[in-house]
Every structure is written in structure tokens, then in C-alpha cells.
Protein: G domain-containing protein
Organism: Meganyctiphanes norvegica
Amino acid sequence: MNVHEIIAEKKTICKKSQAQQYTLWPCEETDIDTAHLMLIGETGKGKTTLINGILNFVLGINCHYVYRFCVPVNITRHNKRDIDSQTDKITLYKIPHVEGIRNDKNLVLIDTPGLLDTEGIECQKQSLDQINSFLANPTYKENMFIGIVAEANLTLNNNVRNLINLIEKIVQGLSNVKVILIATFADAFEPKMFSLIKEYLKVKLEGQFKINNKILFSNFNVDDESEWRTWEKNMALLLQEIQIFNKAPDSECSRARRDSVTSVSSSSTYLTTKSNMSHVKRQEKDMAEVFSK
């Protein structure tokens, strides 16, 4: 399985929260609406993996493809342990609408530092300050969804109580923001986290979704086809909730996808230094195959 990190330039968009944004491929300024989905949750529960899942779904990656795409990871502290949050700053990934892919609006996915981080109280306070500062910016209050991400088999303990308290502090009092639940590492059964969080979280919830991204980055075999279809179905339900899912059949989009990849491949968004030229060429080849389907 080849996993290509999309090479994109980043820019700081909010000095107070230190938020940074990657635009994953070039786009013209248009009047197309933009939906924002911010993911919050405990460290290591699959927020960044969920973003990669959404990216591959939007691009129409097929289970038989031997490659996947992933977003750039914004890490500024390099002495991290596996149990530490792998996202240091609020990071936005803009997935612009282009003809032929599955989002019919621009979509901005917002990754956040993990709550209950193992690096201590001071790090936790910094993360909360970043999130609250970002949400105070009126620019991002239109079409904003907050996804609470937690493992499907979540059980009540002191950690979970603390997590729910932190989430309440973040989302209470926010207007024009819709809150949804997203269960990760989910199997065929109803996730325990749905009933648990709904019982203890004193916030109106707009919907609940379960996603298992394990299948996305596994080597595929025929027996996995049913699991892949389930993954696609659940991902479609999530994106329909935030109203960006384009249901147009692939056959109607194939020519537009081929046209779109021309601008993607030639854009200066991709940093063509000597050290990553071979990576870029593989990425462009695989991206071209995606858009030609």
C-alpha cells in the first residue's frame, strides 16, 4: 500500500490561536459555500485518521487501488512519544470543490490538539486556549460543525468524565454551531459512546455517526469488500449531514475529473524540490488515475 502525503504550502490564518491552513489543491475564488468541520476529542482516538478517511472518500478512492492519500501533518515538536498528541496546533485542511469530486461545496476540516494530553496540565491549557481563540473568530461561525470524536467502545471512568467536562467548556454558549458525535474504531454494533456521551453531555446533538478507518489503510482482499462498502456508506452519511456530499454518478464526472487534475498537477502548491520530485511524480500519477475514473 502506497500512502502519498499531499504536498501543500501552509499559512498562518489566525495569530491568536496560531491556527495554520493547508489548501490541498488549487482553486479559484468563487461564491461556492464552505462547510467547516472541527474535530475535538482525546489524544489518539483517530481525529487525523478520520480527516485522511474523508479526503480519500472525497477523491473517490476505490478499494482496489494500491495507494491512498494523506494530509500533511503539522508537527512542530519532534520529541514526541506515540502516546502524546501528534497535532500541536489547530490545523485546517481546505478541500476545495472542483467538478468531478464528491464534495459539492468547499470543505474545511479542522484538526485540533488532543484533549487530556499526556504532556501535562500546561499543554492541556494551551490546547484549550487555541481552540477557544479559534472559535471566537467570527469568520468560522458560518456552516460550522463540531465533531466529538471518541472510540466506539468508550466506557465511563474519571478520564471520560474529565473529557466530557472539557468538551462542555468548549461548545457551551456557541451559537450557529452544530455538534455531532463520531465514533471511531467502530464495528457492526451500536457504539457505547453514543448513549454514554448523550447521557452526560449537556449540549444539543445534531447527529451521530460511526466510522472505522482501519479498512482504508489495510491491504485489501476480496473478503474485505463488504467492510469497504460499509465504510463508504457511513462516510457518505457523515458528509450528507454537513451538506457537502455530491451524489452525482462517477460516469457523469469522469471528464471533469480529468480536467481538474491538470491544474492540480501543475500547481505551485506542490513543492517540487529535488528531494521530493519522485514523490510528487508518483502522487501526480496516482491523482491523475483518481480523476480519470
User: Anything to note?
Assistant: The helical segments are 47-58, 121-135, 158-171, 192-200, 225-241, 250-266, 277-292. The CA atoms of residues 4 and 282 lie 8 Å apart. The first strand starts at residue 2 and ends at 5.
